[in-house]
């Protein structure tokens, strides 16, 4: 189906700008321009949302720090043998957040850990949200309007989803992590592959609700194919659910890494927030009152998760016509 | 309610596999059963040597094949029956004859020919071959009149019998009275114990699956004793009033072994160890490149002793440490580099050496991910070996993956560690050629080590009944191990424990100097522990605590509820 | 082409001058159709369960490591002792035979034997089921109620102060690892350091020295406080967020204007009209979570030494005790299946539109 | 002046979205008990907005000014608590698109009962009885109370809404296109029912409809709206059959009459663009589409003048057009129009 | 009064015998309820055998009370519902339900839905909703903007710029309806199937829309099937009218024939209740619930509510037995005035006695 599916559910995405000199432009460039304008408008509206900007900026700062970390962190300081301080130094001049059990600066570790943690958080979320959304929309759509063939597809998808769904997430992740070679990729896969069914379920429920609305029938009466209905009508209407899931999943994924470590499935040699937490735990820092080793990684995860939520919230405010103009 | 007596609470984490003394294997259960059933011989906390227990004395025949133990005559089981030589003989014979009953202690009787009760007080054990470990038979002696019917009834299913008929009937200083899986285990003192009544009326083991929670419980007084602490925890507990920490000499060693090329007993090669590691020079260079002191510092935060020989210094008779000339493998990266240069291991462009056969020195190192000290040591080793041009592929993995790699010989370096008993025979036996696998995957030990000299020395020490001569042989065994650089001991981690002095007055360490409390080879600690004067029962508080806790919870709820209610009241009017 | 009158379709008759009564929801075939519906769901559930059992069995067989080696690791055992263990647990047989045995056992609710405890897995699980249900059930119910309540508040006035504070707090807790929060709570509220008295026990479920049922119940309640607080804090955000977004979706609906026009208080409009509708998508989630929560309490139980299934699983994982882990896997999955089944059965009660 | 409903100078401006939309601009209405006022007018002229404004149901952020006296009390300045008490008891609404105005997950019986409970109109144990009675009134068997809205046809749902609106025996019923979705048969029933209620109980009814024949048959008086204003108001029959305002006459002419050969295959519309409430034309809003517009229309936005007044200058009817009788005089006489005439609208 | 010579009717040539552009042939649509809690057993025969032709350039009105199956028939004609019996023919060829064919078909045949509230996606602006069909079939075109604006202003939303960026909840009911109409017209369809297209429009706008339809028919040869319960609408624009009752067409003929000289008692009742109908006997209000398509009465489906039967007139005409036991035949869809009534067949219509087409088998 070649139906155009406006994938960016931007605000007021169409140009009510009056008859412009459109002559001489190819439809393709027009479409491109339309999309660009929609994006611009989206950006403008987004920029007006203060909380959203705050979230975005803090994410960007964290991301930039993580990316440029090699420039200002001496990597030998992150090795066990090259640790610059004494073990468990409390926060102070040289080490603003103190040191860990090897004498490495906790601040350095946090910044460096962002590299892995953000990767895990983003990729795992991406994998599970896109998988879940795709499965949910497809199953919901074909289940309600696909004809017999579609229904078969839908029920297969749903069976698979249901089947994944009943597998206890954590247990499955543990098994996956145990079978696959240790590493960030495995963690991403283990999380991504086990978390999606919940998203799929939610999205499917929402899809079914949307599919029952007359405007979907109108779209079909207009000749819109499956892709059109799913992309143009269903997707924007499941976006709130997807956004809510996404914001939750980013934190979940980052934490899942440390949870897997807690259960003995992590890779203690990588530096990530989850691994830091786990290292803090195994070193007994919690009951020893070495708070500077435990609190920062936890807070870092929370800050990222909150920033994501603020962004998600702002996007939602921009794309939901009824919320427009508020907040 | 019977909790009026004094109680000693221990935080434990490991689950109970079985209270069947024939099958129980996990550390927690063997530790507990040690207080329930006496052994023939125990260990003297002062001398670290064998001490009389059920057996008042023992003697050996000339050929060393017959051992005669004289039993005490004042030992009664907790059901009032007297313990006789018949019980002892039956216990040993059962283990020898019944596979299911051999699960826990089969290794002690493998060299036994026959065990007989000469009379009520005398047990005679006949051996196939001399066996120097006869005074270290860690076999619980059980009442025949209780276990024989069970054995008959269970038959083949005996191995699944978990001994959950409580209270147990035993001769030890405590009687196991209660077990609530995953919650607690209760032992009551046996006031009629032949050695004298224990100081505490109750020994209460409480489950804490999270160590930090256990430490907090120690702080709050809910438990009297915790063990297996970390350095950070010890450091912070040290300064706490009413808490004493005990840093004991380690019984364990932490080591890594090098795959020297795995072979079966028939000489069939298998696995995929790095071929260059067959070269002794390379192995020695690897060991020289590693600073055990640094591993003590970084890997164990100082709570360990840098190792030389195989057996920890705690067993001063058997411990051996390379001195002077012998210390050929001391940390010396320059020398290591030199050795490698000389042996033709050229550095490649990336700084990684290549063996004379053209194999790049990239070695897979397997580390237990669940052992923080191993993980940390692994990091140090990886970084240090880089200094001598060896690249380490650090595989910090699950024990399962690690053991697969070990048994399939698909590793280059691998971490290992053993807790060494007062008699080191077993940990030595695993490096004999006889421990090599009969076919791939069936190895007994933890390294594919096989050395004729070693095997000879091993046989000799096993047959040597003279302690000093035996110690000498064992020293030489360790020297061989050290030289061959296959089994490389890194550190002896300290044992870190803490207890509340306002609950426990005084207890016996084993050994008395630098000894530990938990996991003693005897039952000295809990038998000797005396309740402190001020000892409030550690769990005496909860009911008041409960009242306070629930009160506070309720208060919070009420306040929150009221807040919400009034807030709603005030805003309800003006909202649409 | 002729159309024949079909008498089967309804009571008609000569001279019937009033229209046939509309088919009410309580038609004659209702009981039967409900039964068919329920049976259908049950059948699906059973098929899922079977699939899970097969998956569980093979999944845990491909886990690396030899359980017998793992069990005896670090202890002084001979090859014969190991062989004996292997034989005992049937690990010496080919995989398919093991599976057949296992499947046969399942028919009598025999989940095999735990390597670690040497006890039937089913017994172990039954023993621990109570505590887990107590903890997980209470925790989920509180979390769901709290999340729904606050989510309703937040979604009713999105962007408002209450919304911002509520979501920020919820997300903060959502983003901290369970064990981290649990341990901090122990440090702060249980250990009695500093000026804080130790208000709550550091772990366990009940003080075993207490014998009176009331005392024991009180003690259990006290032991439950911290685990429940941890659990609730960590999961309620999800309910809040979902409730919030579905309520926001519902906010523009015309029937809310109707409700307002009827003179209902704002709170009533929300409670009686908006929430029941917004609840529909949330219900799916609640049931999903209810199923997952049994396995989700692994961390909480571990931190607070709660003698439940989660802790059992954790201990099984350390060994690894394949028999146990696999049995728990089946139980965890079965709980999800059961909850899904319940969701399927309950949903039509909530949403009349899906009642066929 | 103590009529049932008295609306003075009602202005409503929507503020959401792209800019302000002044949907209602200075509407005056009044209604006595036992009266029926019909409101017709162009789609988008603000009829529903007026209806919603009467009970302050407009979306948050909408600007409403003027005065809405319901039995002497100003709805716009009421306390919320009082407003809630007034809603449904003082006045109830049948919404346009009533099919969507029912809560899909609640039984219709409960939804009808709800206002009864909230306002305590009947004792709790009589509620069920009353619900059954209401359903019977609108021609639904009482057993349908157990059904959920999706089981009802559009027409049935609409009738449920009407039953609900009648529940508390309000003094005023606002029916916004209450019969649009109904087929003629049911429409006839419902209209008969409403007429009876108005007559018997002396309640007032504000009936918004596009169907002029319905309005003329049911209402005593009719007001015609255009671009947010009332452009003509008067006795129903006169306004429908003999309209004075050009828009009203266009509307009336456009209404099809079955059997009238003139309208057969010749639907009549209104040429020209509908007004933009955000940017109304100067002067009379209808001017751009008006066939009889004059220059003066571009400058004067005429108020409601009496149409064909009697000697005392009074009339049953008023229209906002310079062509209407006194209107012209008023303008030409350059007197300030408005006050007097609007005063006269209410008797 | 007969309108057989009406010039317009003749002009569009419904009698020429060409293949009708759209044709329903014995279409049946039955909804069978699934199984589940709540019950609701049985099959709802929403459309129960309908023959109906729409000739090229013809406007047919489908009238009938609520729930008689108008919407279902309209949806079936669009291929949105698969008929459980009979078939739909477009230009003489049976409608293919393959998605590619349907797409092409739906480019030429457009549907205007009954419910303007629900037919617009709340998250899409007016512009997007109108342009949707265009995008589906033509992608983005250069003159897209102009076409959208044109369609909106044709539908009476003028000036269009004012509405382009609004969302449905910011429109009045009539404005929403017109957006839907604009969305259907933008593709210049050949056939328009409109379900209550003007129900929520005021007379003037509605007149305008209807005139637009007539214009389109004149200029582009648009054909239309308009489902409505508004008889005035039929009078305004339709050439022919079909009266539906409980899933069946019970009377069909030209507008003049049916509305001026109704034969079926149901049609007569319908006309009698119009507020200013000139019927002397007064309105004939039919009692009882609207019939339930799950329980179609035996015999004539109208008989339980039939005033003629109730008043004993049928008895007098001697058809009362037939009324309760014999189901009248399905009426053919083509031109001509036909009534499915035993009584009318016997006594003839009140003004122009005619015969019901005899029982036939097809
Ligand atoms: N929420 C809103 N935001 C902005 N404009 C709105 C909103 N609601 C309605 N409008 C506009 O206000 C005007 C009046 O709308 P209203 O619904 O009162 O019309 P109406 O007379 O009821 O029309 P109809 O007969 O079509 O229902 C319309 O132009 C409409 O576009
Ligand atoms: N999906 C469905 N499942 C079951 N029954 C249905 C379904 N759709 C319609 N019906 C039933 O079919 C009959 C005809 O419905 P339809 O919507 O076609 O009527 P209508 O003539 O359009 O009525 P209205 O004038 O109220 O719109 C109704 O009784 C309706 O209840
Ligand atoms: Mg309106
Ligand atoms: Mg319809």
UniProtKB/TrEMBL annotation, chain A:
**SUPFAM superfamilies, A to Z:** MetI-like (SSF161098)
Region Disordered, residue ranges: 1-32
Instruction: Indicate the segments forming the ABC transmembrane type-1 domain, all copies.
Output: 114-312
* Record keyword Membrane present: yes
Locations of Low complexity compositional bias? 20-29
Renumbered to this chain, the Pro residues biased-composition regions fall at 10-19
How is this protein positioned relative to the membrane? Answer: Multi-pass membrane protein
Q: Which residues cross the membrane?
A: 51-73, 109-139, 160-180, 186-203, 241-263, 300-319
Entry GO terms, CC: plasma membrane
Read off the InterPro entries from this record. MetI-like, MetI-like_sf
Q: Which GO terms describe its biological process?
A: transmembrane transport
Where in or outside the cell? Cell membrane; Membrane
Which PROSITE patterns is this protein grouped with?
Answer: ABC_TM1
What UniProt keywords apply to this chain's record, in alphabetical order? Membrane, Transmembrane, Transmembrane helix, Transport
Concerning its family, UniProt says:
Belongs to the binding-protein-dependent transport system permease family.
Please give the name of this protein: ABC transporter permease
Annotated organism of origin: Nocardiopsis alba
From TrEMBL, chain C:
> What segment(s) does the record annotate as region Disordered?
1-26
Which InterPro entries does the entry mention? BPD_transp_1_N, MetI-like, MetI-like_sf
Family the entry assigns: Belongs to the binding-protein-dependent transport system permease family.
Tell me which Gene Ontology terms the entry assigns under biological process.
Answer: transmembrane transport
Identify the SUPFAM superfamilies for this entry: MetI-like
Extract the CDD domains matched here.
TM_PBP2
Query: What Pfam families does this protein map onto?
Result: BPD_transp_1, BPD_transp_1_N
Domain ABC transmembrane type-1, chain residue ranges per copy:
129-343
Alphabetically ordered keywords of this record: Cell membrane, Membrane, Transmembrane, Transmembrane helix, Transport
Transmembrane regions: 34-60, 133-156, 168-190, 224-242, 278-304, 324-350
GO cellular component terms given for this protein: plasma membrane
* Compositionally biased spans, kind Low complexity: 1-21
Q: How does it sit in the membrane?
A: Multi-pass membrane protein
List the protein's name: ABC transporter permease
Where it mainly occurs, coarsely classed, is membrane
Source organism (scientific name): Nocardiopsis alba
* UniProt-annotated location(s): Cell membrane
TrEMBL record, chain D:
Q: Which residues form a coiled coil?
A: none
**Signal among keywords:** no
Q: Which InterPro entries match?
A: AAA+_ATPase, ABC_Ni/Peptide_Import, ABC_transporter-like_ATP-bd, ABC_transporter-like_CS, Oligopep_ABC_C, P-loop_NTPase
Q: Enumerate the residue ranges of region (Disordered).
A: 262-283, 306-347
Q: How does it sit in the membrane?
A: Peripheral membrane protein
Q: Where is the composition biased (Basic and acidic residues)?
A: 308-319
PROSITE patterns, per this entry?
ABC_TRANSPORTER_1 (PS00211), ABC_TRANSPORTER_2 (PS50893)
> Which GO MF terms are attached to this record?
ATP binding
Where, subcellularly, is it found?
Cell membrane
Domain ABC transporter residue range list:
7-252
Keyword terms of this UniProt record: ATP-binding, Cell membrane, Membrane, Nucleotide-binding, Transport
Q: Which SUPFAM superfamilies match?
A: P-loop containing nucleoside triphosphate hydrolases
- Domain of life (superkingdom): Bacteria
Asked if Repeat is a keyword of the record, the answer is no
Chief site of localization: membrane
Q: Which family does it belong to?
A: Belongs to the ABC transporter superfamily.
**Which PANTHER family does the UniProt record give?**
DIPEPTIDE TRANSPORT ATP-BINDING PROTEIN DPPD (PTHR43297:SF2), OLIGOPEPTIDE TRANSPORT ATP-BINDING PROTEIN APPD (PTHR43297)
Q: What is this protein called?
A: ABC transporter ATP-binding protein
From TrEMBL, chain E:
**InterPro entries attached here?**
AAA+_ATPase (IPR003593), ABC_transp_ATP-bind (IPR050319), ABC_transporter-like_ATP-bd (IPR003439), ABC_transporter-like_CS (IPR017871), Oligopep_ABC_C (IPR013563), P-loop_NTPase (IPR027417)
Pfam families noted in UniProt? ABC_tran, oligo_HPY
Q: Name one GO molecular function term.
A: ATP binding
Keyword check for Zinc, yes or no: no
Q: Which residues form the ABC transporter domain?
A: 22-271
**Family matches, as SUPFAM superfamilies:** P-loop containing nucleoside triphosphate hydrolases
Q: Which UniProt keywords are present, listed alphabetically?
A: ATP-binding, Nucleotide-binding, Transport
Q: Which family does it belong to?
A: Belongs to the ABC transporter superfamily.
Fetch the PANTHER family from UniProt: D,D-DIPEPTIDE TRANSPORT ATP-BINDING PROTEIN DDPF-RELATED (PTHR43776:SF7), TRANSPORT ATP-BINDING PROTEIN (PTHR43776)
Name used for this protein in its record: ABC transporter ATP-binding protein
